[in-house]
Amino acid sequence: MNTTNEQAPTPDPATPNPADAAAPQAPAVESLVAELQAKFTEANDAFLRAKAEAENTRRRAEEEVAKARKFAIESFAESLLPVRDSLEAAIAIQNATPEQLLEGTHATLRQLTQALERNKVVAIAPPAGTKFDPHQHQAISVVPADQEPNTVVAVLQKGYLIADRVLRPALVTVSAAK
Q: For the segment 162-172, what is each residue's pLDDT rounded down to a tens digit?
């Protein structure tokens, strides 16, 4: 029988014991954990503040949009009030002559035109010979004419733009192809 004599290894005095090494490092780890927790708390606080600020900004923007929608027509209505005043004044005149009524009607039309222009409502009234533009004109009829084909012959009803967007196309007669 072959027996080997097994002995427990003897610790090398030059190799540090892991249990001994943990003891001096414990305060360093605890201080690192505390530092990381403080940084986390600070970052979390900054995140929550930024989130709250973004929410407040979004809410204020929604309120401003709602106010803009609600009062968007205010400027337009304000510029039409003098037109209404003029019409009421014309009605109040009991013994107006046809000439006075015509003069007042022209003045009121000028007021209305100015009010529309102040609010970026511009007439579309293409002169004869203008190339037909389906984006701004609506052809009511096609007639033979002594001008280039597919051009405006006459305007039956003015159209209107509001800030470069067609509010109503001009109703026009267009020249036929020869």
A: 988 999 999 99
